[in-house]
Amino acid sequence: MMRPVCPFVKAARPSEPIKKDKDSSAAASATVSPKCPLGYDSQTFKLGPLSCMICHALLFDSANCVPCSHSFCKACVSRFKDCPLCGADIEKTEPNSELQGLVDRFIEGHARIKRAHNAEEETENKRVIYEDVSLERGAFLVQQAMRAFRAQNIESAKSRLCLCAQDIKGQLETMGNTSELCSQLGAVLGMLGDCCRATGDASSAVTYFEESVEFLSKLPGNDQEITHTLSISLNKIGDLKYYDGDLQAARSYYFKSLDVRRDAVKHDPNVPSQILDLAVSFAKVADVDRSLGNEDVAINEFQEGIKLLESLTLKSEDTGLEQRVSGFQCWSFLRIKLWRNKLDSISD
What we know:
This protein is mainly alpha-helical. The chain has helices at residues 74-77, 97-111, 139-150, 154-175, 179-198, 202-216, 224-243, 247-267, 272-291, 295-310, 319-347, and strands at 29-32, 62-66, 71-73, 92-95, 119-123, 126-130.
C-alpha cells in the first residue's frame, strides 16, 4: 500500500523501488529525501503560489479579482477596493475552484501524513529511511490557522483547526488518551473557542472551551504549560458567562481556574508567571463578588492578589512580566479605593 506524500514531490515514493548505483551494494541502508519544490517541509515555511498575500496563510475559499485575476482568500480581499498586489480597481471577485482544489490536495499531502520523522521501511532486504516531508502532526495546520486568525480570516482558521482536531481525535481512538495527544487537542479546541468568540458565537465558544477543559483535565497537574492552558480555558468560559449576565456561573468557572492556579503555585512556588496568573484569578473572582454585592469579600480577594505580587522577585530578563505586575497592582489599588469610597458614602 502506497503511503501518502506531498502531491508535488517527484522523488521516489515509499512503494517504488530505489535505483541502485555502483556504491549501493556497500551501503547498509539508503535514504530518500523527498522535498517539496514550493519550500514547505518540516523546518521551514515559505510564501508561495498557494499562499494568500494578505493573510500569508494557504488560500481558503480562493477568489480571483476581476479584471486583474490575482488570487486571494475571499474573506481577505473582500476588505479591499483595489487589488493589494497591482492596485487595479476590483470590479468583482470570482471563485477559483481549480486553485482551491490544488490547495486542498497540497494540505492533504502535507498535513495528513502520519509517518514520523525518519520512518523506516524494509525494501529488498535494505533498510530505507524516508525523510519526512510533512510538519509534525497538527503543527502545519495550526501554523496556517494562526496566520489566518491574525489576519482576521476566522473561517480559514476554523477550517484548519477543525481538520487538526479531527486528525488528533482519530489518533486518540487508536492510541488512547496519551498526555501528548490530550494536550494537543485541548490547545486546538481552545483556539477554536477563540475563533468562535471572535465572530460573536458565544455558545459555540463555550462548547469548545468546555471540551478543551475536558481533555486538559485528564493530564497531570505538574506541567506548567498544560496548567496555564487549562486555567485560561476556564477563565474564558467565565468571561463569556460574565458578559452574558450569569454571574454565579462566571464565579464558578473563575474559582475553578483559581484552584488550578493555586495548586500550580503550591507545586512550584518559584515561578513568577504562575504567581501572576494566581493574582489575576483572585481579581476575577473578586470582580464577580463585587457585582454580586459581596464588597468585603471582594476587597479581601483583591488584597490576596496584591500580597502575591508583592512577594514576587523578578529577574532582569522579566521586563514584560514586571510591566504586567505594575499595571495589575495599580488597577487593583484603584478598584479597592473606589469600592471603599462607595461603601463609605453609603454608610454616611
